[in-house]
Design a protein that fits this description.
mainly alpha, 5 helices
Length: about 170
Amino acid sequence: MPTTDRARRSWGQRLAELARFGSVGAVAYVVDLGLFNLLRFGPGEVLGHKPLTAKVISVVVATLVSWLGNRYWTFAAQRTEGRVRELVMFALVNGGGMAIAVACLWFSHYVLDLTSPLADNIAANVVGVGLGTVFRFFCYKYLVFTGTPLAKVGREHADDGAPEQRP
């Protein structure tokens, strides 16, 4: 296959992967944003006085949604056999992403004294999630979902299951 065709297919695959990642992220974002606001400002304001606790809870729930979507859709071709290892790594990476969002919220809420619902949402759910998303994408790709892509596995094995002999 000519190099330009391979490069074009490679870019197409990367764009499709980014689109899937973005779609899963959008669903997880809605879960995170909705739960954060429900806990802070919803009926009874369950955690109205604890913005950081509300953010941690909303991120944990959104992380589970995100892991399922990324494992079984975005990076399905690269998932490993070790579900537990992936989940632990995924949780650690999301802990880093959550730390970024919580740090942005903490800085805005407690250092800058911007305590309105709008300020909390911009700090935690726009700036924090945006920075955390970039961090998470690269960590997922290079630290979490590290299995061999299925397309490569198919090319490396002959019909009898033995590796191909290369000159």
